[in-house]
Description:
The complex is a heterodimer. By secondary structure, chain A is an alpha+beta fold. Chain A has helices at 54-59, 93-99, 106-125, 152-158, 176-180, 186-201, 211-220, 233-239, 251-265, 309-320, 323-340, 343-367, 432-460, 467-491, 498-523, 556-569, 572-576, 586-603, 610-627; strands at 15-23, 27-34, 39-45, 70-75, 81-86, 138-141, 144-147, 166-168, 297-299, 539-542, 545-549. In chain A, 42% of the residues lie in helices and 9% in strands. Chain A is elongated. The two termini of chain A are 25 Å apart. Chain B is mainly beta. In chain B, the strands form 3 sheets. A 12-stranded mixed β-sheet of chain B has the order 8-7-10-11-12-13-2-1-22-21-18-19, with no helix packed on it. A 5-stranded mixed β-sheet of chain B has the order 4-3-5-6-9, with no helix packed on it. Chain B has a 5-stranded mixed β-sheet with strand order 15-14-16-17-20, with no helix packed on it. The two termini of chain B are 14 Å apart. Classes of the chains: A alpha+beta, B mainly beta.
Amino acid sequence: MKFTFAPEARPLDGYTIKRAVHRGGFGEVYYALSDAGKEVALKLLNNNLDIELRGVRQCLNLKHPNLVTIFDIKQDTDNDYWVVMEFVSGRGLYEVLQDYPSGMPLEEVLFWLDGITAGLSFLHDRGIVHRDLKPANVFQDPGGVKIGDIGLSKYISESRRSAQTQSVGTVYYMAPEVAKGRYGREVDVYAMGIMLYEMLTGKVPFDGQTAAEILMKHLTAEPDLSRLPKEIRPVLSAALEKDPARRTSSSEELQRQFRNVVAAADMTAPVPLAKATPVPAELRSERVRSMESETIVEIDTESVQAGPAGVAALVGFWNAIPTPLQWVVGGAVAWLILESGMWRSVAVGGMVGGVAYLGYQLLSIFVGEPFSASSGPYTKASTPPPAPARRQKKASPTAKAAVPTKPMSARPVTRNTRDRVYTPATLREIGKTHRATDVSTSISVSLAASGLVTAAVFFTTNLLEDSAQAVYFAAVTMLAAWALIIPSKIWEGRSGDSFTRRLCLGSLGLGVGFLAAVLPEYLLISHDELFHGSHSSGRVLIGRVAVSDGSQFPTVACFMIFFAALFSARRWWWQIDSFRKARFRVSSALFTLVIGIIITGMLKDFSFPEALGATWALAISAVVQLSAGWTQVEDRRLSPAPSPTTDPVPPRSVNPQVPLAKAEQASFH
Amino acid sequence: MNSGTLQLDSQHRQNRWCCDTCVPERETALKGNAVAISPSRKFMLWIDGVGAWQLCVGESFVVGAPSFEEKSADIALLADISRKHASIERNGEEWRLTAHQSTAVSGRTVSQDTVLCSGDEIQLAERVRLGFRIPSILSTSAIINFESDHRPSHSVDGIILLADHCLLGPRKDHHVCCTQWSDVVVLFAGDGMLRCRSKVALSVNGQVANDSIELKHGCVVTGEELRFRVEQME
Lengths: 669, 234
C-alpha cells in the first residue's frame, strides 16, 4: 500500500485519519477529523536528517483569505513532524487545467490570477518567498483561491546536504536562478508567468523528456509566445525573463499589466484563444502530463544524456526482452565472441562505435542540448528528505554504460515516475559498521563468486587447460574483485570526482596486473598456452619499461597496463554500489567484455593474450556484481535506520494491511 | 472516534443550521455485523488518494437540510432548504424527483415530480444546485455533484445513489474515478448485504478474499494500489 497510515489511524492526539489525500513533494497528506468533527489536512513531513523548522515557524501565524491556513505543527510518538492545516475541499488548479487542454476561458484565468496575486503579494510583503508555486499547490475553495505549501520549501532548503545531487521541486515552474542559489521573490513571479502561459494555452512553455532538459530550456531557450494573442505576448515575455533584474518585479505588477492588456484589447468575450467550453467528463481524454509535477526529482549530476533515437530504440528493444531471454542472448553473444576469434573486427567495431558515441556526446554538449554537470551550473547541492521507497517495476538493464537519469517522462503517464529514485549517485549516510560489514560480506562472497565464475569458464571454454590454471584464473579474478570492491564500498554514498576515482582504480590495476604477472611463477603453473599471445612485435620500450620483449609472451608491464586500463575504463563503483538498478545486469557484464576486447585489441601487438584478457574482463565484472552488497529498492534509505536496540522494526515500515500469505477464508461467497 | 454531539443551547437547537457532527458511528452496535440493506442506508467510502464519497443504498432518498431531532435526510446538505425538500426515487431503471418545496430541474420548475436524466441540474430553493449524472451505461446508479458547493457538514466529494452496481475505477465513466487504480472495483448489494468484487486481488482487514467480499462497517479493503474504508452512517 502506498500510504503509510491506514484509515482510522491516530498518530496525533485528537485527530483521526479518515483517508489519504495524496503524496506531495514534501510528504503525505491525509484528511482527518478532530474528535469533535473538525476536518483538517494533516501533512506528514518526510523524515529528515536535521529537522529545521525555522522556515515553517515564520509562516505559522500567517492568515490570509488566499493562503491555506496552517493551524499547528505537532510531533507524533515517532518524532515525525505533522503540519495541521486547513483542508481545502475544492479542486486544484492542476485538475482544472486538465479540463482545458488547449487553454482556459479568460474569465477563469483572471479569477485564478487575482487570487494568486493577492496571496503572493501578501507573502512577499512579509518577506517570504514561496519558491514552489505550481498548479498542484493552488486550490479553489468556496472561500476563493488558496495557495498552499507556504513556508515548506524554505524548510526543505535548510537541510540540504550533499554536493552531488540537487533536488528540486517540479521543474516546469522553476526560475533559472533558483539553481544558482541566489534568488528572491522574482522566482514566484516567474512561476506565475509559467502558470499564466499554461492557463492560456494548456501547455507549459518549457517541456522535455528529462528534468535536465527542461532546466536547460529555462536557462537558455525562449518561450514560444506565438500561441498567445499578440497583446499578451509582451506581458508574459517580461514575466519570463531569464534575468531576475529585468523581469517583472512583483506579482501585482504582472497582474496589472495583464489586466490592462486584456481591457485594452477588450478580450473579455469568449475567447479567440481557445475553444473555451470545457470538455464534458465522459468525453474528456486523459490529460497526458503525469502527476509527478509534485515529485521531488533528483538530478544525477554525473550522468549524460542517452544517445540518439536509434540507440533509444535499441535500448527499448533490449528492455522489452524478458530477463531469462536476455541471459540467453547475452550468453550466446559472449560465447560467440570468445570462440570465434574474431578479435580484430570486434575490437575495431567497438572502438569505432565508442569514438562515434564520444563524438556525439561532445557535439551535443557544444550544441547545448543534453545536460552534464561538469559544465552545468547545478553544482549546488541538496538532498531531499527521503520518501518511503516503493517497489519499482522490474528494473531493466540499459545497454549503455552511462546510466541515464531516470527520465521524468512528460508523456505518457507512468506510475513509477512518482517515486524517488535511488541511484548509485545518491548520496547517503552509511554507518562505519555497516560499511565494514558490507565490505567484509562482499569479500567473502567474492571467494565463492570467483570460484563459480571460474568453474563456468573452465567448463564452457577451453581457455583453461587444467585445474592449476583455473586456480590461477580464479585467484587473479578474486584479487581484482577485491581491488575494485574495497575502494568502491568506501566511496559508496559519498560524493567524489569520477576522474580521481578512475585514477585510483587504475593505480590499483597496476598492482593487480603485477600480481597477475608474477603469480604463475609462484604457483609453478605452466602458462605457456594460457599466455600465448598471437602476435609479437619485437622489443617495444616505453621509457625504460619493456612492454614487449619479442617473445610470444606478454611482459609484466603489459599485464599491468592491461589491468590498469581495464580498471580505469569502466565506472566500476556503479556496478558495486548498493543502490544500483539491479543486482546483476547482463548488459553491464557484456559491456565490460567489450571494453576488455577493445583493450586487448590495442595490446595485441604486445602479445597480450586476447582470449584471456577478454574473459578476465567478463569474469571480473560478473564477480563484482555477484558479490557486492545490494539493497532492495524498498529498503533503500538515505540515512541509517534508528538504533536496533530500541526498536528493531520502525513501525512505519510495517504495513498493518499487508495481506497475509495464507489466510483463513472467512465466509466469503 | 466519538460521535461527539455538541452541547448546544436551546436557541441553537431551534436553528436547523446547527446539526450533528460528521459521521455518527455506532461501533458498539454494528461491530462485527454485516451491513444490512434495509430501506435507504448511508455509507461513507473513504478512498485513499481519491476522496470521500457518500454511498446511498435504497430506492428512495430524501434531499434536505440536516436535522437532528429526527432522522436526517439521506442527502443532507448544509443549505437554506427545508429538511424534506425533495425526494429522489428509483423505479427500475428510471429515476424520479418528487418536489416537496420549490425545486427546478434543468431550468424547468417541478410542480410534483419529474423524470431525472443524466446531466440534469437539480435546483433547490434559490441557490442550491446539484448535478445528477449516470456516468456508466452498464449501471443505473447515479452520482450527485455539488455544483453550488452546498455540501453535507463534512467534505464529501459526491454522493453515489446505488441502483445495482457502483464502479470504482480509473476510467471517466466509472462512478468514482480513481485515476491511479489499475482495474475496477464493483460495489453491489447482494443477499441484502453490501458487497464488493474485483479482478484485482483484494484483502479485507488483512485477509485475502477470493470472490466477492462482504463489506462490514469499519472494514478496510486493500489492494495492490488501492485502499478504502467503509463506514455505515447513522
